[in-house]
Fold each of these.
Amino acid sequence: MKADTMIRSWRHSLLSILPAIFAAACTAPGPVTDSGGVVEVDHFVPSQPETVSWGWYPVDKEPVLTIQSGETVRINTLTHAGATQSEEPVSYLAGLGIPREEVLQDGLDFWASREGRPREGRSGHVITGPIYIEGAEPGDMLEIEILDVETRVPWGINNTSSRGGVFSRSYPGFDDDDIELDIAPGTRHVIRTGEADGRDVAFFSPDIQVPLAPFMGIMAVAPDPVVGEPGVTVPGVQSSRPPGAFGGNMDVKDLAAGTTVYLPVFQSGALFYVGDGHGAQGDGEVSGTAIEQSLTGTFRFVVHKDVNISGPRAETDTHYLLMGIDLDLDRATRQATWEVVDFLVTEKGLTPAKALSLASIAVDFRVSEVVDLTQVVTGFIPKSMFLR
């Protein structure tokens, strides 16, 4: 039996149907993982000027690909770092020590296509999509199984500034008397990535290696933009900066290969977008950027009919992830707690009192992202504590 015919509501025995969801996904035509870890896919989408959008999620753009539920897609993404500045990319990146042979051609093509692209109300991300999934309609849920994420180039860029990220003058709580860090505005840090002692790392300095943990900062379905909502100042234009119920720029570093993401559907076909690749990031992304790096992701998409969820959620092998997203960090924490309590009540049969008690003693609430207007708090519910 197909997963989308088995499920009638996210709130109805999710835990009991998860094995069926994954069984159905594994029997989808074509995609398998061989012993070498190479994922065979049904489709491929490059990151070319015609397949990307700059800083927003168009709801009326012609799909770059149409697929059936259960199919897999390998998608190239392009980092904005080195592709959106005013200076020509080869010379700009050469000034940062990046040789011509490590500059992607699609980055050059995108840069050449910048003129004429509207910018009002938009952000800086380069986002691949949309992908139209047959059968997806508002009121459904889209499952995105992240099968693989890999780097396209052996470098990424992180930006720091004395008044960037959480030190920005526009950041909540800023005071004119705050001490300013001794950092030149717009300092760029080129960080090489590669293998050392059998593991993938980011070479931060001769004495510091950060484990490489690539993930897509943006995974989104096309939203239903409303002027006045975070990131919507122009009718029909949802800026890619703030995440929301549609997913988007969540920057949750745990959404890596092996994780499954669930998003509510707002438009016919769901219209999936992906981008903002990160080679590694700490919770919070406090400077305003991670290791901004062009990545390739491989995903399996499954539509679940008439499954209503209020916003993004995910699961790993070890945890359920429930997210709270709000302009205010305190409100985001409250929302994440509410989502966790609701999950424990509806899926595990606890009373609200018991659910809140369990949330307080066993669930970790982590600040995932705090620098993109709306802020993300994620509740991590460990699966190991449930005996059945």
Amino acid sequence: MNRASEWLDGDVTTLTTEPLTALDRCDRCGAQAYVRVVLPVGELLFCGHHARAHASAYVDVATHVQDETDRLHAEHGQA
């Protein structure tokens, strides 16, 4: 199993920060963000799709990952 898919299974330590809101938008597509990636110099916000798509690029450099994709599934169902 690669590190990116391990993160998606919850193996990365997360930092509890303010909950993401509808005003927080994905840095790639502008959809509602459900994942905050804290880097040594700033942060990135991603929708669930782009968080998964780019996980391999940031999993080794992220200092914390705040994953609220469980809210996405609760609010919109698991398609």
Amino acid sequence: MSDLLATLYPWTKAFHIISVISWMAALFYLPRLMVHHTERVGLSGETHDLFAMMEYKLARVIMQPAMIGTWLFGFCLVATPGIVGWWMIWPWTKGVAVIAMTVFHEWLMARMKGFQRGENTLTGRQYRMMNEVPTVLMFVIVISVTVKF
């Protein structure tokens, strides 16, 4: 199995990067949709239905599969011999940040389901502030993987 993972390493890494880019794009965009949904649209009517559909499709068609791909290809990379030095700090900081990103993802999914039901308790400002979470986590992940401290 380890020989297969080593042979497929460039492809696995490429698909991991593609998945991460797709996941991050959705994590950046979904809170922005929710800002506008909250501030400009409200929780009923035709435009609400349109925003709820856009949020749903972004979350279910792009964000969810991209997260699954990120985790799947990430596990394959971790299982590839010689890729991760577990005695170093970087795999642990990256791992914690990826888990935090997944928690944020699930938080967004819960907010999306609330909009689907016509419920929302947060303000546009709160969604704007939450929109910074993936940026901070991205910094931790990219620096961890690139600097490898």
